[in-house]
Amino acid sequence: MERAGSGQRAKEQRSDGEIDAVSARAFVQRGWVELERLDREYWASRRRDEGSRATFGASSALLEHVRRLRPDWPGEAERAADLAHHLAWRRLLEKAARGLGR
Predict the structure, then answer these.
(1) How many structural domains is the chain composed of?
(2) Is residue 54 within 8 Å of 43, Cβ to Cβ?
(3) 13: pLDDT confidence band, cut at 50, 70 and 90?
(4) Is the domain of 79 the same as that of 64?
(5) H helices of the chain, where?
(6) 3-state SS assignment for residue 9
(7) How would you class 10 by CB atoms within 10 Å of its CB: exposed for 0-12, middle for 13-18, buried for 19 or more?
(8) Which terminus has fewer CB within 10 Å in the chain: N or C?
(9) What are the backbone angles phi and psi of residue 2, rounded to the nearest 5°?
């Protein structure tokens, strides 16, 4: 079993869904700062080249994937929480706009 980004092979392949200690240690010790930098560069390039289509496409693909895993998602509770979150953000943005004299 090859670990992502490591180029090394784990000594055993687990079929029980558990993660072996070697793989867990390799994951924790990854170069997270470098990965974050590369991620920012990747998305900056995608947004520069494709505009909002890049993030819309990614979010659409993620939604499709989640719906394959959980066809009932989002349920009423998740939708209500999402709406409440959006409304709270809207209130904050309107308050900030008023503070800027707009």
Answers:
(1) 3
(2) yes
(3) low
(4) no
(5) 21-28, 32-50, 52-69, 76-99
(6) strand
(7) middle
(8) C
(9) -95, 135
